[in-house]
């Protein structure tokens, strides 16, 4: 169904296609031997022009658990980009060696450009402040697993009626942009955006995506005022690497810190998600709260990436 397809932004897969991916990921999670060695002899190129821990390692772990192998680089200094090689040429080269490419790049639109020069599927692992679609698949699978009805096959039943709160850097946060765009396709939910004025969600998300789809949302500067309404709290860090002015970063970096006292105001079944890494926006004491789901979320990311790789590489039965 997804064999040979690129994944550049959340809208590249239909709702039904994502549901199939989630079911496949859940089967991989629960059946230890399922799809083991299904990608033996296949190669995944991981091209990371920007630092990464979870995304890169989870893709590599996913490919290895499927029996495949990985090649690539973890930072641009070890590639020919430092010699002036164009992205198009780097992609042409990688596509001649590998069966699929996973790429992270600090420039918006880099993944789309890569897909135009690649003869193999390209998966966007983050392009600047634009999109991060496999993190969105991770987020949606986590919500389905932790908030969905037992035995439910479709994500729609898990998100209907939920209030999703997104807190922190909503201007540059590509994970928030991707998640919002993906969830806007499901009826019956609403968003609360919590940020300082300087880091508000861009108009192309609030007006171009949510308002156009008729999705309810509101914006506020206070986490405490809205915490009791939220079912899924998506925390994000203020990203130093997106700021041109160090003073602005220092002024805004501690805008929101989720701690035990704030958690006492939240619903008993609220879940806390975070794409990670965190800096200090979630106090360590919150880790012991059963509602803290960010480390489970990271593990679900490996399963959904296994499902994605198996699907785009055309493994039989996917």
Short description:
By secondary structure, the protein is α/β, with parallel strands linked by helices. The chain is built from twelve helices and nine strands. 38% of the residues lie in helices and 14% in strands.
Layout of helices and strands, plus pairs?
Layout (H helix, E strand, L loop, with lengths): L14 H16 L12 E6 L5 H12 L3 E5 L13 H11 L2 E6 L4 H8 L4 E6 L5 H15 L8 H4 L3 E5 L6 H10 L6 E5 L8 H11 L2 E5 L2 H4 L5 E4 L10 H7 L7 H4 L7 E3 L20 H19 L6
Parallel strand pairs: 1-2, 1-3, 3-4, 5-6, 5-8, 6-7, 8-9
Q: Tell me roughly what share of residues is in helical segments.
A: 25-40%
Structural class: alpha/beta
Which stretches are poorly predicted, pLDDT < 50 over at least 5 residues? 240-244
Strand content: 5-15%
Mean pLDDT: 90
> What is the CATH C level class of the largest domain, in words?
Alpha Beta
The helix count comes to 12
Strand order of the largest sheet: 7-6-5-8-9
**SSE string, helix = H, strand = E?**
HEHEHEHEHHEHEHEHEHHEH
N-end to C-end Cα span: 7 Å
| CATH arch. level architecture of the largest domain | 3-Layer(aba) Sandwich
Count of the domains: 2
The CATH topology of the largest domain, please? Rossmann fold
Query: Over the alpha carbons, how many angstroms does the gyration radius reach?
Result: 19 Å
């Amino acid at each position: 169904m997804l064999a040979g397809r690129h994944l550049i932004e959340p809208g590249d897969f239909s709702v039904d296609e994502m549901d199939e991916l989630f079911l496949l990921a859940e089967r991989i999670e629960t059946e230890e031997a399922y799809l083991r060695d299904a990608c033996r002899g296949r190669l995944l190129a991981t091209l990371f022009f920007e630092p990464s821990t979870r995304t890169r390692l989870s893709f590599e772990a996913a490919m290895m658990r499927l029996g495949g192998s990985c090649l690539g680089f973890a930072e641009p200094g070890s590639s020919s980009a430092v010699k002036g090689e164009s992205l198009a040429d780097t992609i042409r080269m990688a596509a001649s060696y590998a069966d699929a490419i996973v790429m992270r790049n600090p420039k918006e639109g880099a993944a789309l450009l890569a897909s135009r020069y690649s003869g193999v599927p390209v998966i966007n692992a983050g392009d600047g402040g634009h999109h991060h679609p496999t993190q969105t698949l991770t987020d949606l699978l986590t919500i389905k697993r932790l908030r969905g009805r037992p035995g439910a096959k479709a994500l729609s039943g898990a998100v209907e009626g939920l209030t999703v709160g997104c807190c922190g850097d909503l201007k540059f946060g590509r994970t928030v942009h991707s998640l919002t765009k993906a969830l806007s396709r499901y009826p019956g939910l609403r968003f609360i955006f919590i940020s300082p004025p300087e880091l508000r969600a861009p108009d192309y998300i609030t007006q171009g995506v949510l308002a156009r789809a008729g999705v309810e949302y509101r914006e506020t500067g206070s986490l405490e005022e809205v915490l009791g309404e939220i079912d899924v709290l998506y925390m994000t860090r203020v990203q130093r690497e997106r700021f041109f002015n160090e003073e602005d970063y220092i002024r805004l970096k501690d805008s929101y810190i989720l701690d035990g006292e704030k958690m006492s105001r939240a619903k008993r079944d609220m879940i806390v998600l975070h794409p990670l890494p965190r800096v200090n926006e979630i106090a360590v004491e919150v880790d012991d709260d059963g509602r803290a789901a960010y480390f489970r979320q990271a593990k679900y990311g490996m399963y959904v990436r296994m499902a994605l790789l198996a699907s785009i590489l055309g493994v039989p039965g996917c």
